[in-house]
Amino acid sequence: MSKNKVEVIIGGTILALQGEESEEHIQKVASLIDKQLMAIQKNNVRKNLNPTKVYMLAALNIANEYIKALEELSVCMDEIQSFEEEKERLKRELSALKEENAKLQLLEQPTYASVNRKKHINRGR
């Protein structure tokens, strides 16, 4: 895969990034980081917060969101697994019910002998 070279702005600084992801993806990543930085600077009472601390706080916020997303993904994957197991159980139950239904239908069908007996009885009247 070819590497894409993309210029982005993060924290007011223009950076030249290079990666295998699409330009759109790289821009989204840069935008996410920039928004985190802006939010930290906006919410900070001290306007002269050390830039290293701002970047560290942004990294912590993004890592926090990432871990929460992984935990949510894990819960969703567990639910999917549970649904798959339930689906397989229901398939087996459906198959058993179909077999039982077929057996019952066979029992309800009149046999050749009983059909002839009924015809014979009806003729005599």
Structure, briefly:
This protein is mostly helical.
Can you walk through the features of this model?
The chain is mostly helical. It has one domain. The chain contains three helices and two strands, in the order ββααα. Strands 1-2 form a two-stranded antiparallel sheet. The model has no long low-confidence stretch (mean pLDDT 88). This is Cell division protein ZapA. Keywords: Cell cycle, Cell division. It comes from Sporanaerobium hydrogeniformans.
Strand and helix map with partners:
Elements: E1 4-10, E2 13-19, H1 23-43, H2 51-108, H3 112-123
Antiparallel strand pairs: 1-2
Helix pairs in contact: 1-2
Protein name: Cell division protein ZapA
Keywords: Cell cycle, Cell division
Key structural traits:
about 120 residues, mainly alpha, two-stranded antiparallel sheet, about 75% helix, cell cycle
Average of the residue pLDDT scores: 88
Q: Which runs of at least 5 residues are low in confidence (pLDDT < 50)?
A: none
Number of helices: 3
Helix percentage range: over 70%
The global form is elongated
Instruction: Give the biggest beta sheet.
Output: 2 strands, antiparallel
Number of domains: 1
Structural class: mainly alpha
Q: Termini separation (Å)?
A: 90 Å
Strand content: 5-15%
Number of strands: 2
Within the largest sheet, what's the order of strands? Answer: 1-2
Rg (CA only): 35 Å
Order of helices and strands: EEHHH
